[in-house]
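**Protein record**
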Amino acid sequence: MSGMLSYFTRRLLLVPLTFVVITFLVYAILRVVPGGPIEQAEAALKAAAMSGESGGGLDLGSEADLELDEDAFRELQRFYALDQPVAVGYLQWLGVLPREVRRRVPRSTLERDKAVFEPLQQLASAAVRVRTEIEQALAEHGWLLWRGEVYEPLEGIDALPADLRERVRELEARGIGARDELIALLTSRGFGYTRVRLLRRIDPDAEPAASERAAVLEKIAPALDALRLAQAKRDEVAREHGYEIDDEGRIYRVERRFAGILEGEFGTSYTHNEPVLRLITSKFKVSIIFGLTGYLLTWLVCVPLGIVKAIRHRSWFDTLSSFVVFLGYAMPGFVVALLLLSTLAVRVDWIPLGGFQSEHFADMTLPQQIWDRFRHMLIPVIGYMVGSFATMTILMKNSLMENLGADYVRTAFAKGLSERRVIYVHALRNSLIPITAGIGNAIGLLFAGSFLIEYTCNIPGMGLLGYEAVIQRDYPIILGILVFGVLIRLFGNILSDLIWAWIDPRIRFQ
């Protein structure tokens, strides 16, 4: 007993290490692959512009103008925790390192606590007012304000010096991961980068019109100094009270605390704009109901069928049932579900086309709810059963036949025990061992759901949610599903070993 306890203790101690290795690898891959949330935001912006152009809408300019400006880019980086190194970001996501949580203060709070926020709003408004005046003055000359300095836009990358041009192209091709390096390189050479266009810092001594440039810069110099002072005062006061104010005057509450999966914070979905944990738990119910029902029915059908096939080996029943079993094995579950839907739902209208329940399910009586749930579950459950129907039936049959030929079975018959007792008490118990070995994997599949069946039957379960998250690059949902999937699979395998040892007294893990 002490040996088994030691074995399972070691297995349990390996769970955290295995979990960290798997989740870190997936997290690191998701951080470096293209197509993240910021690229998707730009793609959506360009798609909307193209749609507007095709419909005679607004002309938003060239493709370069259809990118996020620097403020929006930085905000998205911070929101999606992409502004930290991979290792730091992972530890913050895990919840073992504190992170800066930045939440915008809602208007209702600003109005309710005027005594607290009115001084901050006044400082923010003063900085915005000065900045707006400067930008309006610079716009008359085609200039703009970037990071507190005056710049002029360039026509394109060809306006850069030749030695800088190729390096900029390389960094732009590397995407978001090289954005900070690109900006640092350009800034060191007197250029800027706003995600809209390339910029060049205004040099008052550069020709042509050096005197005019110097006059304009001298004229706005007091306003620039006033802006820097206003922003410094704004940031100082806001920081003292635990807040942060952006250049648009929006006030954010800033806290540094542990906010990861260990604290139950899985982040917010990019596409659904809802907490990931709430989304996953809402889908769990659906996948568990369908998966558990299908799995239990598979046991209730396949185990007795395998027993009968083993007892009546090579009979007409064994031959006919083998034909049906292998026919089901050759057809994927979603294909069977699709055929049943086209027959029972489309042609004769006996079964709903899909979904989990009817629209007015809450208004039905209990018998009506049971009947409605049965009609919605019939085809998906059959689809779930088909996947493991043949495997479990043949495994049960072959395992029982092997045990019926064992010495201990012949000894039991020689002692005068009845056939029923020998089969169902002695042989059946040992025959169930190979099937129980797969319970861990079955539990993982049960909770994960089946995307193909859920998609075919229009079931809002875990499988469909995970597939849509991968297609839409919704990384918080992908990582959230990964967390649950890894934990369920790891503990499911340990559960399989426990059941295996409980069924077969000969098995002792050391």
